[in-house]
Backbone:
């Protein structure tokens, strides 16, 4: 038997049923991870069919093959660079015109292309006649009909893939004509391209010529680095000039018009349908869910339910993990040499480190299960729409609302959820301001300080004001980023509202598993390393058996002492506080444990003991360490300063570079310092000290 | 007689109109074209909120247009 591998790429519009086809074809087979360095996800899986190894790659859902969104660039580069053997273009057969727009662009890439007309049963009901032979002839490609959710046509599709692989018929890239004037210019440019081996090997010369005429940034940059680039630049400039005289400034639009012109010509020849707009059940549901009056309250209630669902159900699971962690730690204490560095490394470093990775798993699992349900049911697109106006005023995008709200639970899944924001700048701004949304781990820290220093009547207001400060700072920073760092035309908010449907459990679980495994693989390792590093800093050099003394003389203690003067103007210059803040880098709730250690609270004493210690703590001159004002300033600092290791890891993962992680650490800390400064010094001026 | 050009914000819910253009940069124009809204396409307004956001129906596709978009989308009567 032949053991040949066929690489098959699935391309198509969002909501064309691409992922359903991918999931039905690959099932629960082992899925290979994502491509390194790229933030947009491409899924791939390998399976056997009729003696062939089929490597199926699910490209991001795209409407077009230009260079305007990261999804499009990823899909396009995959097709150009990896040269898949066969490209299957999944088409929503009930939306032919728009779906074929992508097809016209794929055709120009000179590929072995197969069109899969998906949701064919639905299309048949809506259309009177669809002459597939005629369409196939007009588009110059094979057409297979599928109904993926009923698993119809999938074997036929695979058979066709094998046939196309064996025969390698390239589709006819001359089908789309742009008129003689444009054709002339295309040919002139092609001639120059063919002189350059590097370009000619890599690209279809016709496609490259068209992209260069359209003024495609990404392609221009790559092509112009070639050997005959000067000649190429000159030819393009001349052609563009001539065409602009004839057609006006926006050449890209001219090409788009010609493509649509071709499609509507093809459809009017091959498809007969009465013009009729059918209202669906989805439209009825939308009358309620995106209603001007009740849409917003419904959205808020749904979000609240997602939180309840996640945090109520995850609580016992998190407790289970913590118990397991304690059990293992006790076991280690029993069997490892007492008091040694090894015991400490295993108990506090390794078991503690693995534990802090695992405690996020139930939260991520449940949160993405709930959010995935809303996403796949079609509701998320509506939520973005409802919130778009409001988010715009904040300098953000409708799609940013979900990650921002999730941030109140945990910033890790929140930042992972920014993947649904298409625009790169919007996504980056949302990621960068997300840590200001006060997460669940910061809550116990506030609670400790509020209980120790504020009256019960004031507690609620103090807590609320902290959350509010977080939101206000996020808004201010988003505005600043938008105006100074990520300027540019505000992205036109156009979004498809897919019909409502009940999500398939299998697809949902696959989605959740992808999120959890991505977290464990990429972020997990970094969190673990950070925890061990913190353990090392607080236990070395080892010279004291009393925990508080040990910590004071450790590297962490020394760093704490060194940075303490920085906090002088903020009202909490004390090495013990500084060390606790360093501990917060591991995880925010660690601040409490570290404060306990530095203030010599025994492991078995209650939270009350720490509260009393904090209330009575004095500095070297014998003054009270904390006042209401300095505690408030400290809490604001804890709210805003650098995110925990998990968030830093996840920013690295999602942006694909350490640059943004490091930036986030510095800028949040600077912002925290400024706000605490304003609050403390302002408070002193007002006589609140 | 020249046909009257209106903005989408002026169109009542339930009415059908024809897409003419969008007053905006190339990017907006291209985005709309990619999603099936190019010159001459007929669509129906399903929802329209004050301040711009609206939902339109182009064939069997539902498109949501965000804040301020409706003021920029130019249409004419069928």
Residues:
């Amino acid at each position: 038997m032949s053991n040949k591998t066929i690489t098959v790429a699935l391309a198509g519009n969002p909501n064309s049923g691409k992922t359903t086809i991918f999931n039905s074809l690959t099932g629960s087979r082992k899925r290979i991870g994502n491509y390194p360095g790229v933030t947009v996800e491409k899924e791939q899986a390998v399976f056997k069919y009729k003696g062939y190894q089929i490597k199926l790659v699910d490209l991001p859902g795209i409407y077009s093959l230009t260079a305007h969104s990261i999804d499009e660039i990823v899909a396009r580069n995959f097709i150009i660079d990896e040269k898949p053997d066969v490209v299957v273009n999944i088409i929503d057969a009930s939306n032919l015109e728009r779906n074929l727009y992508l097809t016209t662009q794929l055709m120009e890439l000179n590929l072995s292309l197969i069109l899969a007309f998906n949701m064919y049963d639905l299309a048949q009901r809506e259309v009177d006649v669809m002459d597939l032979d005629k369409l196939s002839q007009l588009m110059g490609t094979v057409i297979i009909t599928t109904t993926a959710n009923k698993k119809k046509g999938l074997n036929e599709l695979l058979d066709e893939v094998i046939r196309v692989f064996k025969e390698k018929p390239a589709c006819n890239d001359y089908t789309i004509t742009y008129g003689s004037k444009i054709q002339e210019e295309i040919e002139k440019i092609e001639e120059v391209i063919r002189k350059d081996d590097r370009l000619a090997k890599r690209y279809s010369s016709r496609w490259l010529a068209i992209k260069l005429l359209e003024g495609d940034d990404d392609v221009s940059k790559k092509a112009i680095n070639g050997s005959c680039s000067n000649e190429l630049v000159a030819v393009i400039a001349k052609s563009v000039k001539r065409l602009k005289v004839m057609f006006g400034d926006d050449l890209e639009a001219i090409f788009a018009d010609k493509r649509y012109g071709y499609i509507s010509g093809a459809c009017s020849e091959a498809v007969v349908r009465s013009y009729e707009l059918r209202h669906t059940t989805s439209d009825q549901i939308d009358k309620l869910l995106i209603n001007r009056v009740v849409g917003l309250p419904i959205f808020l209630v749904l979000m609240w339910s997602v939180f309840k669902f996640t945090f109520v159900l995850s609580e016992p699971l998190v407790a289970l993990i913590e118990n397991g962690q304690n059990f293992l730690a006790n076991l280690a204490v029993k069997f490892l040499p007492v008091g040694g560095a090894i015991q400490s490394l295993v108990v506090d470093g390794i078991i503690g480190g693995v534990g802090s990775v695992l405690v996020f798993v139930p939260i991520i699992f449940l949160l993405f299960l709930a959010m995935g349900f809303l996403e796949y049911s079609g509701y998320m697109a509506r939520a973005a729409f409802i919130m778009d106006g409001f988010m715009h005023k904040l300098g953000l995008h409708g799609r940013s609302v979900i990650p921002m709200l999730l941030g109140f639970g945990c910033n890790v899944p929140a930042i992972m959820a920014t993947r649904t924001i298409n625009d790169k700048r919007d996504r980056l701004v949302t990621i960068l301001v997300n840590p200001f949304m006060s997460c669940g781990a910061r809550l116990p820290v506030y609670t400790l300080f509020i209980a120790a220093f504020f009256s019960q009547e004031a507690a609620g207001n103090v807590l609320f004001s902290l959350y509010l400060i977080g939101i206000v700072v996020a808004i201010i920073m988003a505005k600043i980023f938008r105006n100074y760092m990520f300027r540019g035309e505000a992205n036109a908010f156009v979004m498809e509202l897919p019909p409502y449907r009940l999500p398939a459990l299998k697809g949902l679980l696959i989605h959740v598993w992808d999120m959890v495994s991505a977290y464990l693989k990429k972020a997990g390792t970094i969190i673990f390393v950070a925890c061990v590093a913190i353990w090392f800093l607080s236990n070395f050099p080892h010279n004291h058996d009393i925990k508080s003394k040990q910590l004071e003389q450790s590297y962490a203690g020394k760093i704490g002492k060194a940075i303490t003067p920085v906090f002088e103007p903020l009202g909490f210059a004390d090495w013990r506080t500084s060390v606790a803040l360093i501990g917060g880098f591991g995880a925010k709730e660690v601040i409490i444990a570290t404060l306990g250690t530095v203030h010599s609270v025994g492991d078995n004493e209650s939270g009350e003991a720490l509260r009393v210690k904090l209330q009575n703590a004095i500095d070297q001159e014998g003054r009270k360490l904390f006042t209401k004002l300095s505690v408030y300033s400290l809490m604001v600092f804890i709210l805003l300063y650098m995110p925990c290791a998990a968030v830093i890891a996840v920013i690295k993962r999602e942006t694909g570079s350490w640059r943004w992680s490091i930036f986030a650490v510095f800028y949040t800390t600077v912002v925290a310092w400024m706000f605490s400064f304003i609050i403390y010094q302002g408070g002193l001026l007002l006589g609140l000290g | 007689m020249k046909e009257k050009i209106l903005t989408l914000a002026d169109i009542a819910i339930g009415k059908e109109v024809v897409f003419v253009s969008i007053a905006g940069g190339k990017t907006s124009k291209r985005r709309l074209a990619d999603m099936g809204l190019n010159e001459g396409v007929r669509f129906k307004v399903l929802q329209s909120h004050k301040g711009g956001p609206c939902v339109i129906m182009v064939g069997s596709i539902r498109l949501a247009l965000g804040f301020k978009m409706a003021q920029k989308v130019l249409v004419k009567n069928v």
